[in-house]
Amino acid sequence: MTRPSAEVKSVQPIYLTKQEVEKRVQNGQILIIYNNKVYKLNKWINYHPGGELAIINMIGKDATDAINVLHPDYVVNNKIHNFYIGEYELGDSEENMIHSQTSTNESEQLLTVAKEMSISMAFRRLESKIKERGLYDCNYWNYAYEIVRYIILITIAWCLVIYGTTTLHYIISSICLGMFWHQLAFTAHDAGHNGITHNLHVDYLIGIFIADFLGGLSIGWWKKNHYVHHIITNHPEHDPDIQHLPFFAITTKLFKNLYSTYYQRTLDFDSFARFFVSYQHYLYYLIMCFGRFNLYALSINHLSSGKNLIFRNLEISSMILFWCWFSYLLSYLPSFFIIILYVLISHMVTMILHVQITLSHFGMSTADYGPLESFPRRMCRTTMDVDCPWWMDWFHGGLQFQTIHHLFPRVPRHNLRSCQSLVKEFCDEVGIKYHIYGFVKGNGVVLGALKDVANQVKLLKTVAKGNHNKSFITKD
Length: 476
Description:
It comes from Cetraspora pellucida. By secondary structure, this protein is an alpha/beta fold. The protein contains 20 helices and 10 strands. It has 3 domains: 12-92, Cytochrome b5-like heme/steroid binding domain (Flavocytochrome B2, Chain A, domain 1, Roll), CATH 3.10.120.10; 141-359, no CATH class; 375-435, no CATH class. The strands form 4 sheets. A 4-stranded mixed β-sheet has the order 1-4-3-2. Strands 5-6 form a two-stranded antiparallel sheet. Strands 7-8 form a two-stranded antiparallel ribbon.
């Protein structure tokens, strides 16, 4: 006797419109859209390796392109589907034009769903082309050459301190140590993006060894900071990489005492900030010389107050070991004056790195075109590349191609130059400007942007003074 076959019941998918997604978000659901499917991440957000804010800044939005370029294949092929709740239904209202005018005297932008989707589709074709050419693959010989360079720099630094007899020896040693930290940052950056072994935990451990133990900086802090920067680049309220008050303001929006969603505090534009911002184009390079000291403070704060840190104890131990070996190195120096000089020079050398990093964003747009703007349009609008010959790639670390890196964060930086022609073709195809300047011209663009904002502060002071004098005369 045969048993009747069990009736297979098909489950009808739930369809959610934009309005329904927004309503659920208002009720506390953490929803994102990926490939026209809706995912609820309430149970995952606290464990996201890129931090909570990386997800929070994408709530209710189409995160397809950002997820594809920032996450390895196993996330998009397997893990994310555990959080699926329904299909996203594009409503008629979303077909309407959305008008957005920037606050930086740029021309008005007319964004449509059709246009932004066409850009996204072209971008996905570009990503497929880059994968087909093997540009996501890591050539480990590149790291072999870099390791040799690192060993040479740190060996010279130690030998000149231990066996040195003159101040010149110690100065050369401090410069080599600063260059050692400068160069290490590029490899730590790769580890933070899972771009070395493509294994989350292995690359995290590599990052801890390089950043925490050899450099004294938290790779966990860097990941939390940097992933938000990649998702919401140059947004005055959300991107920590442009929130540098009281020393810098790259947009007049920061005059309004904005609330930073990253630092969870108001960025006060007080008298102290007004003074420094008034002269920021003159102080830019000087302040950058002390940037590494600020990174120490941010790293310590992150490890002491951060939540759900998977390698907290290992990072703390590694940073303690950094201060042990660095203090031991300093103990060989003959006087307190030489120690102070050594610390200052070694840290000031790393200002090159801070200039290289800020160069790609400080002079670029800080406008917000709203949730309709496609991921590739925002990355190209807010980021510039630095043009230089191939033999200078070691100096810039390959990260002079910041636009390309922001479009494809997991492409090994040694392959970014090979992606350049493809990205230029893409920008020409979709009508997006590809910003690229030489190193000197790029510095000029940044200093010009800083000066423009500084002039606005001085103008506000003049207006305020004029109003005060007018009030005084009227009162008399």
